[in-house]
Protein: Cell division ATP-binding protein FtsE
Organism: Luethyella okanaganae
Amino acid sequence: MIRFDHVTKQYPGTNRPALNSIDLEILRGEFVFLVGASGSGKSSCLRLVLKEEKPSKGSIHVLGQDLGSISNRKVPYFRRNLGVVFQDFRLLPNKTVYDNVAFTLQVIGKSRGFIQEAVPDTLKMVGLDGKAQRLPHELSGGEQQRVAIARAIVNKPQILLADEPTGNLDPTTSAGIMTLLDRINAGGTTVLMATHEAGIVDQMQRRVIELSAGQIVRDERRGGYGATSAVPTITASSGPSADSVPTSRPAAAAPKVPVEVMQHAQPLYIEPEVSDEVTDAAAAVTAAATQATPVEQPPTTMTRPVLPATKHDMPEQLTLAEKLGLRAPGENPHETGEQEVGPTK
Ligand SMILES: Nc1ncnc2c1ncn2[C@@H]1O[C@H](COP(=O)(O)OP(=O)(O)OP(=O)(O)O)[C@@H](O)[C@H]1O
């Protein structure tokens, strides 16, 4: 489903690769945590899967496609199979909850009838029934993240990428968000999540891939967080003496979600009830949105040859549709009212 073969990523102006000859295979239906100190390469890994960045060396296959052979024009079509959730939510601040979720479907040309069914159903699934007409600033952080998750799954992606999705949330809300991601995964969606949250990783006991200085140092089928929060920050610094220069990046965030909070996490999603037509419908949407598929077994061995590197090439200013990969950079927006986006708050 996701395969890295000898992937090296070195950003321009740096003297050390952010990812150094990574070999990795993630199978359909897996839930994988990417852990490691700040700067170890987690976000780079996710950006490569999204084809937001190109590897300097090596090849990446996602959903059976060699990303190197997908033209820029076809990237938006490729990304329609992927949902993405970020730490800072990235909602459109002047659009309602409904419109934020509908936006994804509008951009890819879904019919109004389809949107009118899919959006309320997905909002119900993430527990935001009744808040469709709110603006993002009228929601709590956890609710905003649920809107972002609804937006990510409304198009039924096969893969959900999450980059520190609980990073801006309190422990209880974080635990609730994890119950939602867990439920989405249980429906068959492959989830790849970068996190610094030891409590979450320790409690969920899923596959854990640990990065250190751009290399995989641990790949456990059912792992805990390990000692990564104690590992010093890694920087792909520039300049000849960069290795000895102190980093300006912050150290890895202190984990804040205790295992007890995870154990008492309240589900945020709608559980189906036999006699309730509304929740039955929600469950159907959940199943459809997450496309149940059998879970394959992950591989047990890896090899890591060393390769050098080149450049990265994405434009700095992108519209939301472009950032979500729904439209090629520079392609004409239609009537969906695109705008530049940053953190929601
Ligand atoms: N666009 C870029 N240009 C130059 N260097 C970059 C760029 N993006 C990331 N890096 C460097 O690549 C390395 C890996 O960064 P990355 O963001 O992948 O780490 P991370 O593990 O996600 O960190 P964090 O936990 O802080 O989010 C870091 O040293 C970072 O400074």
